[in-house]
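Weekly puzzle thread! Below is a chain. First person to post its structure in token form gets bragging rights.
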Amino acid sequence: MKKSLLLFITFLTVTLAGAQGIGDTFTDSDIDYKITNDSPFEVEVIGSSLVTAIVPSSVNEPIGSTPCSVTRVGDEAFNPNTTLTSLELPSTVTSIGNSPFRNSVVETVTFTTTNGIITIDNRGFILSNISGDITSIISSAESIGNGGFNGSANITAVTTPSTLTTLGTSVFRNSGILTADLSASTSITELPSQTFRDCSLLNSVVIQSSVTSIGASAFINCGALNSVQVNNPVPATVGANAFTGVVLGDATLIVPAGKTGDYAAAAIWEDFGTITDGTVTLSTNKLEQALSLKLYPNPTSGIVNIKNNNTNLKVTVYDINGRSLLKTANSRIDISNYAAGVYVFKVETSNGQLVKRVLKN
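Winning reply:
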């Protein structure tokens, strides 16, 4: 009898221990959970049969009624899920796993009190059905992994937070995003490769002052892009094919005050149709032939001639920092007293304007 009782107690102990172990799953109020830690007890959400799921900050596991803090949305949690359309998360959830919203119909992710999400793993919202402005979803994020919102066709806008220190590659690739403001995320020094690749609807972006390099293919095939604001006074280096498929001649580049000349002389940035700091606007459209204008010789040792068949000629010469050096209505400009380097000539006529860089030897 004692032996049988001992065996039963041993069996019961093992059963209870197993029910409360890491990796075990249970369902509470039609939301599925998996235990991820037992000291203290923590769980992640791994599914739901609800249409609208309001996730509590704590849930009791069913065997020992041990309270478990809900801290994560697990990998593949709602992949696939054709029922759940709205998910409300508590502030205790600090992490979004790999591909939890892929092939799901979840349209909105909101928060009961405050947003606690710090980490979005690789492909956190890849191919999701999330719609609208996603700023609230990432408002406290410190890290967004590779492909974070890749292929999310219904997102429209994002403003990244000051807390963001890590941004993976292809985060917004092939999404429906229209506008992006990255200006607050000044801990990031590189716009990673393929960040906005194939975002065919993207029309404006603001790049933070800390960025010193634009990754390869960052804006490739962003055919609707017509406004780029850069907040770094020093032009960032631009990786291979970063703007391939963008008609830069039709786009406006907004730069820091006094830096139009720097950007007009910088590789790739020089190709923007309009470069402005709000005060000086340089148009770099290739209008030489259309306006019957020609600047020569270029390079020059001092004299620049302007062949002009138009009326009302106005010429302004800027240095590399965008400072105005001279203004004239003459078609023969003498810059022989200026130091060797690149100068920007803005030529205005009754038919339009031309901006051209001239190299002085």
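Puzzle host: Confirmed. Bonus trivia for everyone else. The domain at 293-360 is CATH 2.60.40 (Immunoglobulin-like).
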